[in-house]
Structure formats: structure tokens, C-alpha cells
Write a structure and sequence with these properties.
Order of helices and strands: HHHHHHHHHHHEEEEEHEEHEHEHEHE
Number of helices: 16
GO molecular function: 2 iron, 2 sulfur cluster binding; flavin adenine dinucleotide binding; metal ion binding; oxidoreductase activity
CATH architecture of the largest domain: Up-down Bundle
Cofactor: FAD
Keywords: 2Fe-2S, FAD, Flavoprotein, Iron, Iron-sulfur, Membrane, Metal-binding, Oxidoreductase, Transmembrane, Transmembrane helix
Radius of gyration: 25 Å
Helix content: 40-55%
Strand content: 15-25%
GO cellular component, one term: membrane
Pfam families: FAD_binding_8, Ferric_reduct, NAD_binding_1
Strand order of the largest sheet: 9-8-7-10-11
Length: 446
């Protein structure tokens, strides 16, 4: 990719950030225009004003968080899925903190104004104000989604369990919406403010439905995606070959991933992210999946002809990101699969090195294909199979394996720990940050 293209990526991200900032300013203005001298004259009024600001900003961050995972194509292509999911995760806790602050402050403000104990005021608000109880239920659902999204909590549960709990976020937002537009002082007597707020909800909801539901459904029907065959690649690893029509029109490239939904009796309702493990062709796509749970295990039993819905392609982990002719690909375990697809797409004459890190021989997949491609492309594959101490991936170690590493674009895919270790190493060896490209599997499932 040229430097001009990289700048284009940055400009698009800056534009999106600018629009979000303008939206936040307009949202804060909703409260400002509703202020009265009476609100500002009492302590209880000031507390209530603070609670409204917290509610507005917290809810706005929730909506922005949804937009970040709405799969809007031009934003995905410009910013990258991993970065957007990272921002989504960082915004989540802040939105919860602000909404919690709103709950606390509004109870304190009303309690001070009414001259009654806090617990009585809380009960009074929940039982006598319209849509207050649904809003409270919605907030509790958001807390459940937030708690289960913390790294340690999520690591202890199946992806399917986390995904179902996360879906309750949408119910939480719906339950809170009527409370906002019917009880919010900034909306009750200001039709323009109410229109702005409703329009934001419609835009976010419409984006989610359009890009995450309707477009994938339309594309899958147009391209007629079905399972062609399932091939066992090794212990607990299978490749699923997916046949379709005019698949080159989907815009997929090696390094992209899709959200795959296989329409079987037990798993039709689940969408899971898997990267392409071979460069896409006009009639065939392929993914290679390791048994890491119920869904991935079930793929070994897919029958030919099973219909498939595909949401994507997503990601910017593609060959056109490379700025020069020297490329280093680093994969860990099954993380080699998108890199194997990438190998086919670099320009002729590219200098390609591949580092394949695995703990055991059984963890190595697609090695025959990798060796064949290496021979065809005059690439060099460095298998590093064994304990981490044997292959530490330190600056001195990697420089000895790839002496020209400072000239390389580095593509890394695998567990987060591997991605972070390689990032620090190549930075120490002089690789510029804009020539480091990563794909961490942990980000795919949002």
C-alpha cells in the first residue's frame, strides 16, 4: 500500500471521530437549552443537572459503541475491525459508569428536593414514575453484559454463552428508550431535542439492521453459499469449503474474515467469525477451524449442501497494506490460516518470510500447502515448534532469523500474547508502526 493510501485510512478515521465529536456537542446542548434559573438556584437542582449530563453522555457512548460494531463498510475498511472493537470495549465501561452515576445523582437530587430518605426516594421513583422500572431493568441487563465482557469473566465462559448475554444489551437499550424520551426534562418541552434523540436511535438501529442483518442475508442469497465439503487437516482441525456463485463480487481478499452462520438444526442462530484460509476464488471460499468449543467442533459434521449465511468481508489485514517488497508473516497455531491466504496475494517478486510458531507438531496445520507455496513463491518458512524458551521471539532472536526485518512489513496473526510480543520486538528492531499489521482472534467475536 502506498503512503497516500495510508493517509487515506487516517483521514477517514479522523472524519469519523470528528462526526462523533460534533454529535456529542449537540447531545450536551440538549441539556443546556433546558436549564432554568430555578435549576441553578438550589443544590438539589445542581445535582439533578449533573445527573442529566451523565445520562446523556453515557447513553450517547452506548450508541457510539453500537455504531463501532455495526459493520458499516466504509468505516470498517478505513479504520479496521480490530481497532473498532478495541474502541467499543473501551467505551463500554465508561458508558456504564456514567449511567450508574446518573442513577445515583438523580436519586440524591430528588431526595434532597423532596426532603425524604434516599431509599424512600428510590422506591418512589421506581414505583410511581412511568417507564422507570423498565429503565432500571435495562440498566441491570447492561451491567450483566458489561461484567461478562471483562477479560477474566469472558475467558471462563463459552463464546455462545457470552454472545447470548451480550444480545440482552439491545433489550436494555429498548427498555431505556421510552424512559428517556418521556421522562427526560430536555425532551418533554423541546420537540427539536426529542427529534434529534429519536433520529440518533433510528440511525444506529437502522445501521445495525442494514449492515449486520439485511446485507449479509441479501449477499448470501445472491451468491448461493453452500457447504461443498469438509476436510480434516489434523487433530481437531478441519477446513470447510464453501461453494457459491460469482464470489469474486463479494470483494473478499486473503486476510479477510466473515461472520459465518451455518443453517443447521442446532446452530442456525449463531454467527461465528473465521478467517479465509485460502485466497478466494470465483466459486469457492475456504475456512480452516480448530476445535475450541461446541460450534467449532460441530463444523466437522457439516453435510455437503448445508446453506451458509456470510457476514462480511471484514478487516484490513490484507496484502495491499504492505508498503514495500519485503514481508514477514508471523503466525501462531491456527493463526497461520489467514497468513496462508495472504501469501497468494503479494505482488510477484515480493520477498516473503514466514515464521510459524506452535507448541507441538500436532498444532501445525496446512504445512504441505505452506511448503508448496513457499517453493512456488521462493518464500522462506521458519518453523518454530516447541516451548517459548526455545523460540523467545526476542529482538536478537528474530534478527538472526530475518536479518532484513527492519525493511519488512510485518503481518502477525494469533493469540493476543503473541501479537503483543512480536509488536514490541519489531519496534525495537526499527520497524515503523505503520508497517506493523496485526489480527488478534480475540477481537473477532464482537
Amino acid at each position: 500500500m502506498s503512503r497516500k493510501s495510508v493517509k487515506g485510512f487516517n483521514r477517514a478515521g479522523d472524519t469519523a471521530a470528528l462526526l462523533v465529536g460534533i454529535g456529542l456537542g449537540c447531545t450536551l446542548a440538549l441539556e443546556v437549552i433546558s436549564l432554568t434559573s430555578e435549576d441553578l438556584s438550589k443544590t438539589s437542582g445542581l445535582i439533578t443537572i449533573a445527573s442529566r449530563f451523565a445520562a446523556l453522555v453515557g447513553t450517547y457512548l452506548v450508541l457510539v459503541g453500537l455504531l463501532l460494531v455495526a459493520r458499516i463498510p466504509w468505516v470498517e475498511r478505513s479504520v479496521g475491525h480490530d481497532r473498532m472493537v478495541t474502541w467499543h470495549r473501551k467505551l463500554g465501561p465508561w458508558s456504564l459508569y456514567l449511567i450508574l452515576l446518573h442513577v445515583i445523582l438523580v436519586v440524591l437530587g430528588y431526595s434532597s428536593n423532596d426532603g425524604i430518605p434516599v431509599y424512600k426516594e428510590f422506591w418512589n421513583l421506581v414505583t410511581t414514575y412511568s417507564w422507570m422500572l423498565p429503565a432500571l431493568v435495562g440498566f441491570l441487563l447492561m451491567i450483566a453484559a458489561g461484567v461478562t465482557s471483562y477479560r477474566k469473566a469472558r475467558a471462563k465462559m463459552a463464546y455462545e454463552t457470552w454472545w447470548i448475554i451480550h444480545l440482552y444489551t439491545y433489550l436494555a437499550i429498548a427498555l431505556s428508550f421510552m424512559h428517556q424520551v418521556l421522562n427526560g426534562v430536555m425532551f418533554i418541552s423541546h420537540p427539536l431535542a426529542k427529534t434529534w434523540w429519536i433520529a440518533m436511535y433510528i440511525f444506529v438501529g437502522g445501521s445495525m439492521v442494514l449492515w449486520r442483518l439485511l446485507l449479509p442475508l441479501f449477499r448470501s442469497l445472491i451468491h448461493g453459499l453452500v457447504v461443498e465439503k469438509v476436510v480434516v487437516e489434523g487433530p481437531g482441525v478441519v477446513s470447510v469449503h464453501i461453494r457459491g456463485r460469482r464470489l469474486d463480487k463479494m470483494g473478499a481478499r486473503g486476510g479477510h474474515f466473515f461472520g459465518w452462520r451455518f443453517l443447521t438444526k442446532n446452530y442456525w442462530w449463531q454467527s461465528h467469525p473465521y478467517s479465509l484460509s485460502a485466497a478466494p476464488h470465483s466459486k469457492l471460499l475456504r475456512i480452516t477451524v480448530k476445535d475450541l468449543g461446541d460450534h467449532s467442533r460441530s463444523l466437522a459434521h457439516l453435510k455437503p449442501g448445508t446453506r451458509v449465511l456470510a457476514e462480511g468481508p471484514y478487516g484490513i489485514f490484507t496484502a495491499n497494506r504492505a508498503a514495500g517488497k519485503h514481508v514477514l508473516l508471523v503466525g501462531g497455531g491456527v493463526g497461520i490460516t489467514p497468513l496462508r491466504a495472504l501469501m497468494e496475494e503479494f505482488p510477484k517478486g515480493a520477498s516473503i518470510d514466514v515464521i510459524y510458531r506452535a507448541s507441538r507438531e500436532d498444532d501445525v496445520v496446512l504445512h504441505k500447502e505452506l511448503n508448496f507455496l513457499a517453493e512456488q513463491l521462493n518464500a522462506r518458512i521458519h518453523y518454530m515448534i516447541g516451548p517459548r524458551a526455545q523460540y523467545p521471539l526476542t529482538p536478537s532472536h528474530m534478527a538472526s532469523v530475518v536479518p532484513h526485518i527492519a525493511l519488512c512489513d510485518v503481518f502477525v496473526c494469533g493469540p493476543e500474547a503473541l501479537v503483543h510480543r512480536v509488536r514490541h520486538t519489531v519496534e525495537a528492531l526499527g520497524v515503523p508502526s505503520d508497517r506493523f499489521h496485526d489480527e488478534a482472534f480475540a477481537f473477532h467475536g464482537e
